[in-house]
Task: inverse folding
């Protein structure tokens, strides 16, 4: 699973049609909200979609706004103050698109590692904001975080191949 | 600047978007402390502003201290001499007043009245105000970390200031009594009339709910009544400066606050107060007048231990200072241990104990010092207490301390309200409380009337 350093000229930047740009995140949010929590609570589909779009577009500003929008929408579905997921996914969107602009993240191995890494970053930011700013009672668990990260990375790699079909070359 | 922003454009936008979201969260999130929730953005704003205010105040204080304590010391020696003289005078006054207070407390305990005591205070420095002309509030440099909670009383030595309104981790917002949303249960010292003190939009204090047929004059002192459950009873609130007819049948009484609310620097926050019956033999922090006298006056050395249960012997052990025998050196100071031991031996756990002990100790007071004169300006008769009792029946507390001079027969038979309840009478009229007759009596009969317990006894 090589992660190769590539120059800006070698990296292809993709774009997506408006229905895909809007529909895929909405579908992810819908599934996240309506799939049985007992089984799927470990997965964070909106996060995977955020990472995918950010890496594909390779534009930090676009990535952070995508993350912010998806995160805020996810917050609106929950009972907690709006902005916790928003902040976490903004950071992830920015990071993933910045990384996508510098590294070749087209192969499965790179995608797996990037997803795992950003899942942990997302969880850490969410935990920090929720615990120290909103005063929610949360417990940090490395084992659960790693397991969930691995599971999300596996699902993410599969999902990215599916979403690759919607890519449009610029 | 533009080049920096252009160079770090992405990062700047990220920080901006994150900042907006954090701000949005701060507006939504409320910090709950002590059943009071405050928006996080307010907590943060206060947290960002107050350190600068604190720093500024400290620098200002430092400069002032440097000037006043190191450079500008003209006339300090003369002032020191005057103050020492004042201390001597006040010590004498204190002894006299303590005796009065002891007796008043005894009477209160006889009446079963409860009184609020300030148990614990936290000193705080004023570091700023709300910055609004509409509200009269100040920020102090103590908060939740120092144990402050909302609705705690804030006072100075001069009088009450306000109440703690919002508590932050290291600061607190105090709503002053002259704020228009503030209210204080107040009591006119002269006449014991109760009213409600509130602030006006102009920052003045008005005493409400006092009937127009009452006689109130400028200069009358206003005290806290304790009815608001925030300020303990009897704290100075202010003085009446203007009385005019108000709406309906009430007077409009303008009050000048006792504490200078516009120049506050340090305040005390009452973090703990306790309601209890004042006890004469309360051996806690307060010292009884008899003990104070015993410490200051010449006495004989401690006598050998008296066998337990020999009440008369123990009772007479307090009388060496009565007889004036000087012992070996005649200057043994500190008759407190024998006094306490007398209490234990004579009273045990009996409820009548305090009274008995006080009665046993009283001759020492009476003979060692001239008869304490009534404090100037205070009534001497028991009628004063009667009046007080009748005027404030609902508060359940009796501020009889200033009303009841030493030696006055405050609980006289002429005053039915001041009589002890029937169930306590047998205790207070315990024969042990009487001046010893069959046992060894004091060599010189006391020239001062006995305390209430014995004075009350018609037999």
Result:
């Amino acid at each position: 699973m090589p992660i190769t350093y590539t120059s800006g000229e070698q990296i292809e930047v993709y774009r997506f049609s408006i229905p895909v740009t809007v529909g895929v995140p909405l579908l992810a949010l819908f599934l996240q909200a309506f799939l049985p929590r007992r089984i799927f609570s470990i997965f964070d589909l909106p996060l995977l979609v955020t990472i995918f779009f950010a890496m594909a577009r390779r534009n930090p500003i676009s990535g952070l706004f995508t993350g912010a929008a998806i995160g805020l929408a996810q917050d609106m579905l929950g009972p907690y103050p709006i902005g916790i997921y928003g902040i976490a996914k903004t950071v992830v969107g920015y990071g993933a698109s910045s990384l996508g602009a510098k590294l070749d993240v087209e192969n499965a191995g790179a995608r797996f590692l990037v997803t795992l890494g950003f899942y942990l970053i997302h969880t850490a930011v969410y935990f920090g904001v929720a615990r120290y700013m909103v005063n929610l009672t949360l417990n940090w668990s490395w084992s659960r975080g790693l397991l969930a990260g691995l599971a999300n990375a596996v699902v993410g790699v599969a999902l990215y191949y599916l979403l690759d079909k919607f890519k449009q070359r610029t | 600047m533009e080049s920096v922003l252009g160079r770090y454009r992405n990062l700047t936008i990220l920080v901006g978007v994150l900042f907006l979201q954090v701000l949005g969260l701060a507006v939504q999130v409320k910090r709950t402390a002590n059943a009071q929730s405050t928006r996080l953005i307010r907590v943060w704003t206060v947290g960002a502003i107050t350190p600068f205010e604190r720093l500024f105040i400290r620098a200002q204080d430092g400069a002032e201290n440097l000037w006043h304590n190191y450079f500008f010391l003209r006339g300090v020696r003369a002032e020191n001499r005057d103050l020492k003289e004042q201390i001597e005078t006040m010590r004498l006054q204190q002894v006299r007043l303590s005796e009065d207070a002891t007796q008043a407390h005894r009477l209160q305990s006889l009446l079963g009245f409860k009184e609020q005591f300030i148990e614990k205070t936290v000193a705080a420095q004023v570091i700023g105000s709300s910055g609004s002309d509409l509200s009269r509030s100040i920020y102090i440099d103590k908060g939740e970390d120092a144990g402050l909670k909302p609705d705690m009383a804030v006072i100075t030595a001069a009088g009450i200031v306000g109440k703690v309104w919002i508590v932050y981790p290291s600061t607190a917002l105090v709503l002053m009594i002259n704020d228009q949303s503030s209210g204080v249960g107040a009591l006119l010292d002269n006449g014991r009339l109760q009213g409600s003190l509130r602030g006006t939009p102009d920052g003045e204090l008005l005493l409400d709910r006092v009937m127009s047929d009452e006689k109130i004059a400028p200069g009358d002192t206003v005290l806290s009544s304790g009815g608001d459950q925030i300020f303990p009873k009897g704290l100075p609130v202010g003085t009446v400066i203007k009385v005019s007819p108000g709406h309906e049948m009430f007077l409009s009484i303008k009050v000048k606050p006792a504490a200078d609310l516009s120049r506050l620097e340090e305040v005390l926050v009452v973090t703990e107060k306790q309601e209890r019956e004042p006890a004469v033999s309360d051996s806690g922090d307060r010292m009884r007048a008899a003990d104070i006298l015993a410490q200051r006056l010449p006495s004989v050395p401690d006598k050998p231990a008296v066998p337990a249960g020999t009440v008369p012997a123990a009772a007479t052990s307090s009388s060496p200072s009565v007889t004036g025998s000087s012992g070996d050196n005649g200057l043994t100071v500190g008759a407190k241990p024998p006094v306490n031991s007398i209490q234990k031996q004579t009273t045990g756990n009996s409820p009548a104990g305090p009274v008995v002990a006080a009665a046993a100790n009283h001759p020492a007071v009476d003979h060692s010092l001239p008869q304490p004169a009534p404090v100037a300006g205070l009534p001497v008769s028991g009628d004063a207490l009667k009046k007080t009792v009748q005027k404030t029946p609902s508060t359940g507390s009796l501020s009889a301390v200033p009303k009841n001079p030493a030696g006055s027969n405050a609980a006289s038979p002429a005053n039915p309200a001041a009589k002890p309840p029937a169930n306590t009478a047998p205790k207070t009229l315990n024969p042990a409380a009487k001046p010893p007759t069959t046992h060894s009596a004091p060599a010189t009969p006391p020239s001062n009337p006995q305390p209430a317990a014995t004075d009350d006894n018609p037999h």
Observations:
- Chain B touches chain A at residues 9-10, 13-14, 17-18, 21-22, 24-26, 28-29, 31-32, 40 (CB under 8 Å).
- Residues 289-455 of chain B form one domain.
- The first strand of chain B starts at residue 30 and ends at 33.
